[in-house]
Specification:
865 residues; alpha/beta; eleven-stranded mixed β-sheet; four-stranded antiparallel β-sheet; 24 helices; 18 strands; hydrolase; INPP4
């Protein structure tokens, strides 16, 4: 079988490069009788594909294997085979640990100059050590390039560069869109459940519901279009402004560089590359989220006056959502624990009874404290005023200041009762002591609902305090009875209870079944919880109704924009977290850091602060900041099926949890804290330095305050994370690097750089990236589409790591950098995105770039990005 590949010699240089590398796939293996033909061309202009044939040579694999030192020297012959035009040296090289098992590859020398690029593989296999079966469920279509570079001690290192797509580019956004639809549908139902409102408020409610319906229909259309898609697992840069793809991150790829050096353990370095999370379809004429949200918040006050609404600050509306979230989580949980308590009582299981009561007391305490908020109380009054027929107190009498009431103290542990000067132990249970004159009158029965509040009478502001106080009192009754039943059962020494407690206990048959005695008190507790939950939910829904009224349509449009940006950011973060987790499953120090402190996720941005890219950066800043609302949880996968290894997103807009399933064998390797489902925190930080010609304009004639503010703010977050990490995690848990400067010194240098007035200070990016790697963090690199400027940054970082950590010969640094940019994974990324192997730069643009970010000649040209 004859096979051939070309070696192209650049004009005017003695440094030849493989411009097209070839490997032989398993179905076409190299045999001893295989004959290989080498053709050498003099390339005048690669971009124009003009070259001159110099000569060719052929050899068999058997000739190479049998030769001394397993290399042969061949004469290049002209096309007419009449003259020798040069010499080619071909050698065999073992790749060793780069692949699973050993593989042989062939390199060639022309006139004594070794080629930097050894081989390439355009299609990875599932046996690949970096992207094995566990990761193949999430990472697809790998592209691999392998290089050989010389170290300072004249030895050779092998460098493998591998890039892959991620299925999370689509699965995470689709889950988020589904959650948004569910959340907005619940919001509509909650608005309908508010009950009868005055004509003014009823009209506003209809308008808000109409707007929510429009958002839901739009999201459903997006979801339907995404469900139809098949093919690549990434969104190309040329599709960044397509409506139905707006939730999908742009050009999301993973990139791993693995380095093999003589007598050293393999090292690998990961980077996630993604286009800046931004609402490209919606455009940037009015700026990005950071500017739009600030402007909108200032306008809300005037809208509230126009619509006769109460203005609620962002903190108050966030608190309203927190209360609703707490209600939806704790109310059903309390009901479930109450039923379990009755079940334990029926079985007369003292241990189960005590444990369940402890959990019930803890959750009920959280429930009461969540509602001990003046916002809930004032919102109930506002809701009452929005009922039909409401008569304002100012029309009848002078307003009196509301009474300040004190919340009843919850028991610190089961068995401890609470005594208050103004309340009995239990005053809403049959048989309870009649209140004295000093005590507040008993509240309305627990089955009376919000609709029972008289619309034409003044609302009693103390009623809410009495209603939710009954929850604590009912719990105290349950605790007291359980204590008494266990004392009787164990024949312990009897203690004299308070008179109020005695009345509760003696009102039941002491010799009866435990369940029969507990049932009325547990039922009363559940009814009180239901009543309080119903009223609190309606009051917080009314707060959010007023916010929606003041914000339509601008607020909902901004929420859609924020959803889009967040979806792109979360997809990238989930991809990075999974990749980092898989890489660190055998690193005990990393796993300890993960559950004790969490991980830092460092986003590097190369956007300019000029024209549309200002809006992109404003979107990106908000999207990255919103990632602090995300926690991760590690779970055990049901099986090794790829569908069961996909991360699952749950929650609502103010808090999301991403569950990352691990195969059973991997799950058993992680610490108990992680197996128990402890929420894992991620600390997102963003550093931006513009490097293109637009940034030059911004620095000389525009405003770069946005970039300065972002870098300063995120430096403070990164510095705070390091201090927390230093307090909780031993230094030996962090990875070791050859560079002598420690993290503290690096942070001090970074802090100095973020306040220094220096144009295109890319050292900020280098320092932040170095610190992130030292802290076991997750690295991201972005520009507008993660294609051109991102490629320059990624290749520069990889070569800097080879120089600083693996003693890359200084004479090879520029050669390695140009080789990676010319023939590496990043030019393949360009090809995948725009079907052209050229970075979208022109010579005038590159003159404004820092020198180390300029691609080699022949690899760039003005193309659509």
């Amino acid at each position: 079988m004859d096979s051939c590949f070309r070696i192209l010699k650049r004009r005017g240089t003695r440094d030849p490069l493989f411009l097209t590398g070839v490997t032989f796939p398993p179905q076409c293996p190299i045999l001893e009788e295989t004959v290989i033909k080498l053709s050498v061309y003099d390339v005048k202009d690669k971009s124009a594909n003009t070259s001159t044939f110099l000569g060719s040579a052929t050899f068999s694999v058997a000739d190479l294997l049998k030769s001394r030192d397993q290399q042969i020297s061949l004469n290049l012959r002209s096309s007419d085979d009449l003259a020798a035009v040069g010499t080619v040296v071909v050698s065999r090289m073992k790749m060793g640990e780069i692949e699973d098992g050993e593989a042989d590859h062939i390199t060639a020398d022309i006139q004594g100059q070794k080629c930097a690029l050894v081989c390439e593989s355009l299609h990875g296999t599932t046996n690949d050590k970096d992207y094995g079966p566990r990761m193949s469920a999430l990472f697809k279509n790998p592209v691999c390039k392998v290089y050989r570079f010389q170290t300072v001690d004249s030895k050779w290192m092998l460098v493998r560069e591998q890039m892959a797509e991620s299925t999370l580019s689509f699965t995470i956004p689709k889950q988020l869109i589904t959650l948004h639809i569910q959340e907005d549908s619940r919001r509509i139902q909650e608005l309908k459940d508010l009950g009868e409102l005055s004509p003014h408020w009823d009209n506003l409610r209809r308008e808000v519901i109409t707007r929510y319906d429009q958002v839901i229909r739009s999201y459903q259309e997006n979801l339907e279009e995404l469900d139809k898609l098949t093919g690549p697992s990434f969104k190309p840069s040329c599709s960044k402004a397509q409506k139905y793809l707006e939730f999908i991150p742009i050009n999301l790829h993973t990139q791993r560089m693995r380095v093999t050096c003589p007598r050293k353990t393999d090292a690998f370095y990961d980077i996630i590359t993604v286009g800046a999370p931004a609402a490209h379809f919606q455009g940037f004429k009015s700026g990005g989220l950071q500017r739009l949200l600030g402007r909108y918040e200032n306008e809300k006050k005037s809208y509230s006056t126009a619509y006769q609404c109460i203005y609620y600050s962002p903190e108050q509306t966030a608190r309203a959502r927190d209360v609703l979230g707490t209600l939806s989580e704790l109310q059903p949980l309390i009901g479930s624990l109450a039923d379990r308590l009755l079940q334990a009582a029926q079985q007369r299981c003292a241990h189960a009874l005590r444990d369940t009561l402890k959990s019930l007391a803890e959750k009920t305490e959280q429930f009461v404290h969540a509602l001990k908020d003046e916002l809930v109380k004032s919102a109930l009054l506002a809701l009452h005023a929005a009922r039909p027929g409401y008569v304002s107190k100012t029309q009848t009498q002078t307003q009196t200041p509301p009474l300040q009431t004190r919340a009843p103290q919850m028991p610190s542990h089961p068995g401890q009762t609470v005594t208050e000067p103004d309340a009995v132990v239990c005053n809403n249970v049959a048989g309870a002591q009649t209140p004295t004159k000093e005590e507040p009158p008993p509240p309305a029965g627990p089955l009376e609902r919000q609709d029972s509040i008289p619309h034409h009478k003044e609302y009693d502001e103390e009623e809410w305090d009495r209603v939710w106080a009954n929850v604590a009192k009912s719990l105290n009754c349950v605790i007291a009875l359980v204590d008494k039943l266990q004392e009787q059962d164990n024949n312990n020494q009897e203690s004299t209870p308070d008179q109020a407690l005695a009345d509760v206990i003696t009102s039941h048959n002491p010799t009866g079944e435990w369940r029969e005695q507990l049932s009325p008190l547990v039922a009363s507790l559940k009814e009180c919880v239901t009543e309080v939950g119903d009223r609190a939910q309606k009051s917080m829904t009314f707060v959010l109704l007023q916010e929606a009224v003041c914000s339509i349509p601008q607020g909902l449009f901004l929420q859609q924009r924020r959803d889009v940006v967040f979806s792109q950011a979360l997809s990238a973060l989930a991809c990075g977290f999974v990749m980092r987790l898989y890489a660190g499953l055998e690193d005990k120090g990393f796993l300890q850091q993960l559950h004790l402190v969490g991980l830092v996720a460092q986003f590097e941005s190369l956007l300019s602060t000029y024209s549309e890219e200002i809006g992109m950066l404003e979107d990106m800043e908000t999207g990255i900041s919103d990632l602090h609302r995300v926690t991760f949880r590690i779970t055990e996968a049901k099986s090794d099926d790829p569908a069961d290894l996909q991360p699952v997103v749950s929650g609502r807009r103010d808090h999301y949890t991403v569950e990352v399933p691990l195969p059973q064998q991997s799950f058993q390797m992680i610490p108990p804290e992680l197996r128990e489902g402890k929420p894992l925190q991620v600390y997102p930080v963003l550093f931006n330095v513009g490097i293109n010609e637009q940034q030059t304009i911004a620095e000389r004639f525009g405003d770069i305050s946005l970039q300065e503010r972002i870098n300063q703010r995120n430096f403070e977050i990164l510095d705070g994370y390091f201090k927390t990490l230093s307090d909780k995690v031993p230094s030996e848990c962090l990875p070791c690097f050859q560079t002598q400067m420690d993290v503290k010194e690096l942070l001090e240098t970074l802090g100095q750089n973020v306040v220094t007035k220096k144009r295109k200070n890319v050292e900020i990016l280098w320092l932040a990236g170095t610190i992130c790697r030292r802290l076991n963090g997750i690295r991201f690199t972005s520009c507008k589409s993660a294609k051109d400027r991102t490629s320059m940054s990624v290749t520069l970082e990889q070569c800097a790591l080879l120089r600083d950590e693996h003693q890359l010969n200084k004479d090879y640094f520029i050669r390695a950098l140009d080789c990676m940019r010319r023939e590496g994974c990043r030019i393949e990324n360009v090809q995948k995105n725009i079907k052209c192997r050229k970075y979208a730069f022109n010579i005038l643009q590159l003159m404004a770039f820092p020198k180390c970010y300029r691609p080699p000649e022949g690899t760039y040209g003005k193309v659509d990005s």
